[in-house]
């Protein structure tokens, strides 16, 4: 049995910085990683997808700028191998920088293998037993693969990023974040793309006006969309393509052929192989490790951070979990999960950026709200750019005048959303941003003007 001060299982967006933090404070830390250093974000999530999104946007601009006076003698085409090798290099750079950091930190002991609990304070990895006074679980999440789609030729967010050739017809099962980002990207690369969504709207948790606008953007981009539709078990053809029977809500069936299928049906926590019962750690019915506001499990000295605790599913939430743990070690209970304002972006083009509550959620929570709304077609900078899809909606609590949330769908929204978040974190009324002066011409300059004109929701 080897003894450490702390064991960290998983080198994701919380585990890695935490290892450096604890080691820097003089603790002897075991960091255990079963696959790739850096976890999902840098290997199969944010970094590779946003690298592909960047290529997809460049080709779209190159092919669609005649209106702005740009004539390309030949229609630009995609070199997927080059797109992929650029992405692979970005991944290698990140992995190497983490590995070098670990090699230079004498207090971090890296174990490359799968960890499982053998007791409340001990884990096993590669047949070695390690024990520590504190254990931090940061094992992330994986694609949800229903049994009928369990076929190595059916793609996930991981395997689609390994393709060397463009799919002829990519059928995507699931019309939410992952499905929409890959759908638009591969359509722009040149594949035919079909999205099958079982709900009645794309990205169904958003306000219906957001879902409808995204639907329009996707269809105008040439993507076929089936709503209220599910797929039976696909039939695999001898050439490894598939035939799918798509079932509509009212019983109508349609057969489609797919050169490739991508599963984008949500994620599940990586907790089933951890043997959590050996430590008596509780999970909920979906397998997420239950934690309190300070990320402590039901075992006092065991913490769960990142996607595996179900309190967030993003790099920034996982990193914030690390920050909470680090801050509370210096000053007890100084930071907690419930201080966090939910925020995320959907990196289609133009992006959707969200902060706090949307209209639907605010009404469900029985707030009395006012909304400010402006279509991008009325925003001068969007018109000048020739990118007028989308709108900005801000939700305000009538009682306190505080901003409850925003949905910004449009050019540059992924940067603009921070200005709304800053006001929300400052806990000041919306009038502070309404009365501010913003540089012209920007999309954000319309935020003060739209806040002059508040309405009851429809
Ligand atoms: C396609 C895609 C795109 C995304 N895009 C974005 C985005 O644009 N913005 C954003 O904020 N988020 C995005 N995300 C989500 C983001 O990647 C994750 O939320 C983020 O990586 C946080 O993960 P984590 O730290 O919880 O764990 P992870 O990064 O998943 O790391 C967990 C690590 O634990 C290891 N592990 C698991 N079990 C064991 C075990 N038993 N023993 C040892 N090691 C183990 C895993 O191998 C993994 O390396 C995206 C995700 C996907 C799939």
Give the class from helix and strand content and strand pairing: alpha/beta
Which bin fits the share of residues in helices? 25-40%
Ligands present: flavin-adenine dinucleotide
The biggest sheet amounts to:
7 strands, mixed
Low-confidence stretches: none
Q: Give Rg in angstroms.
A: 24 Å
How much strand content do the residues show? Answer: 15-25%
End-to-end gap: 64 Å
Number of strands: 22
Counting DSSP H or I runs of 4 or more residues, the number of helices is 12
Query: What gross morphology would you assign?
Result: globular
Summarize model confidence as the mean pLDDT: 97
Textual characterization of the structure:
There is one protein chain. By secondary structure, the protein is an alpha/beta fold. The protein contains 12 helices and 22 strands. It has helices spanning 15-24, 39-43, 46-63, 80-103, 177-189, 208-220, 315-330, 359-364, 380-385, 413-426, 431-434, 446-450; strands at 2-9, 29-33, 108-112, 115-119, 122-125, 128-137, 141-143, 169-173, 192-196, 224-226, 229-231, 235-236, 242-248, 253-258, 260-263, 267-269, 302-304, 343-346, 352-356, 369-375, 391-397, 403-409. The strands form 5 sheets. Strands 1, 2, 3, 4, 5, 6 and 17 form a 7-stranded mixed beta sheet that branches. It has a 5-stranded antiparallel beta sheet with strand order 18-19-22-21-20. The relative contact order is 0.11. Bound molecules: flavin-adenine dinucleotide. Flavin-adenine dinucleotide is lined by residues 9-14, 32-36, 39-41, 45-46, 49-50, 114-115, 138-140, 157, 178, 270, 273-274, 306-308, 313-316, 318, 347. Flavin-adenine dinucleotide binds next to strand 2, helix 2, helix 3 and helix 7.
């Amino acid at each position: 049995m080897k003894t450490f001060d702390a064991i960290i299982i998983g080198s994701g967006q919380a585990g890695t910085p935490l290892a450096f933090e604890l080691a820097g404070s003089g603790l002897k830390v075991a960091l255990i990683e079963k696959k790739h250093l850096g976890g999902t974000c840098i290997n199969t999530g944010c970094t590779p997808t946003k690298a592909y999104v960047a290529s997809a946007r460049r080709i779209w601009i190159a092919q669609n700028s005649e209106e702005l006076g740009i004539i390309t003698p030949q229609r630009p085409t995609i070199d997927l191998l080059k797109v992929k090798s650029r992405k692979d290099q970005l991944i290698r750079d990140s992995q190497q920088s983490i590995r070098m950091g670990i090699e230079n930190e004498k207090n971090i002991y890296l174990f490359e293998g799968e960890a499982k609990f053998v007791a409340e304070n001990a884990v096993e990895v590669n047949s070695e037993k390690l024990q520590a006074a504190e254990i931090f679980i940061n094992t992330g999440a994986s694609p949800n693969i229903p049994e009928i789609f369990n076929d190595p030729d059916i793609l996930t967010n991981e395997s689609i990023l390994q393709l060397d050739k463009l799919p002829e017809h990519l059928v995507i099962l699931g019309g939410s974040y992952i499905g929409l980002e890959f759908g638009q990207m591969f359509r722009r690369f040149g594949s035919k793309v079909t999205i099958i969504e079982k709900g009645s709207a794309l990205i169904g948790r958003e306000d219906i006006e957001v879902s409808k606008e995204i639907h329009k953007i996707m269809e105008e981009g040439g993507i076929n969309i089936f709503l209220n539709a599910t797929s039976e078990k696909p039939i695999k053809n001898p050439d490894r393509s598939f035939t799918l029977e798509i079932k509509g809500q009212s019983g109508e069936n349609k057969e489609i052929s797919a050169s490739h299928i991508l599963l984008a049906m949500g994620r599940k926590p990586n907790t089933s192989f951890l043997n959590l019962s050996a430590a008596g750690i509780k999970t909920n019915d979906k397998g997420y490790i239950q934690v309190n506001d300070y990320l402590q499990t039901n075992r006092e000295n065991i913490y769960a951070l990142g996607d595996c605790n179900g309190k967030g599913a993003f790099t920034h939430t996982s990193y914030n979990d690390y920050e909470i743990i680090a801050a509370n070690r210096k000053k007890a209970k100084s930071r907690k999960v419930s201080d966090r304002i939910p925020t995320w972006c959907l990196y289609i083009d133009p992006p959707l950026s969200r902060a706090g509550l949307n209209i639907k959620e605010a009404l469900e929570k029985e707030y009395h709200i006012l909304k400010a709304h402006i279509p991008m077609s009325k925003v001068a900078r969007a018109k000048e750019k020739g990118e007028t899809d989308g709108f900005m909606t801000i939700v305000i609590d009538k009682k306190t005048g505080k901003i409850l949330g925003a949905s910004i769908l449009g050019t540059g929204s992924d940067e603009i959303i921070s200005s709304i978040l800053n006001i929300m974190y400052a806990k000041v009324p919306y009038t502070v941003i309404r009365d501010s002066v913003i540089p012209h011409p920007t999309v954000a300059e319309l935020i003060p003007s739209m806040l002059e004109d508040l309405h009851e929701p429809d």
